[in-house]
Amino acid sequence: EVRLVESGGGLVQSGGSLRLSCEASGLTYDDDVIGWFRQAPGKEREVVSCIRMYDSRVYYADSVKGRFTISRDYARTTVYLQMSSLRPEDTAVYYCATARSLTTDQTREIMTNPEEFDFGSWGQGTQVTVSS
Q1: What b/e readout covers 47-69, taking b as 16+ CB neighbours within 10 angstroms?
Q2: How does pLDDT run across 114-132, given as a tens digit for each residue?
Q3: Beta partners for residue 97, in sequence order
Q4: DSSP code of 60?
Q5: Three-class SS state of 98
Q6: What angle (nearest 5°) sits at the alpha carbon of residue 51, between those of residues 129 and 76?
Q7: Surface-to-core class of residue 42, CB atoms within 10 Å of its CB (0-12 exposed, 13-18 middle, 19+ buried)
Q8: Residue 105: which H helix or E strand, with range?
Q9: pLDDT one-digit tens code per residue, 29-84
C-alpha cells in the first residue's frame, strides 16, 4: 500500500519561505499523479499543486502561481513543494496524496481539473502557519 509522509511545516513570518517534502513508499505504476492539498480550520480542502509522475507536468492553483514550486526527486521518491512569499492566508494543514489507476484521458484531464478526481491515498499532513 501507498504510504505518504509530509514534513517541513512550521511557523514562518509573512514573506518567508518553507519547503515541504512528501516521501512516498509503496508506489506502483498505477500511481499517476501526486498532489499537494491544504485545509484551513473551517475551510474546504483545496488543491495547491500537482505533478504527473511520468513526465513531470505540473498544475498550480491560481492562488499560489508564481510563489510555489512543485518538484520531484526521482532517486529518493520524494515530491517537494517550495513555498515563497508566504502570506497569512497560506496558513493551513498541507497534505500530499496520490491519484491512481487513471485512464489516458483522465491522466490529461486531472492536470487541469484535479479537484474532480479521487486522490485515494493521503498523508497525515504538516502544519504551516504564517504570521503577519
Answers
A1: bbbbbbbeeeeebbbeebeeebe
A2: 999 989 899 999 999 999 9
A3: 35, 122
A4: E
A5: strand
A6: 85
A7: exposed
A8: helix 104-109
A9: 788 899 999 999 999 999 999 999 888 999 999 999 999 999 998 777 899 999 99
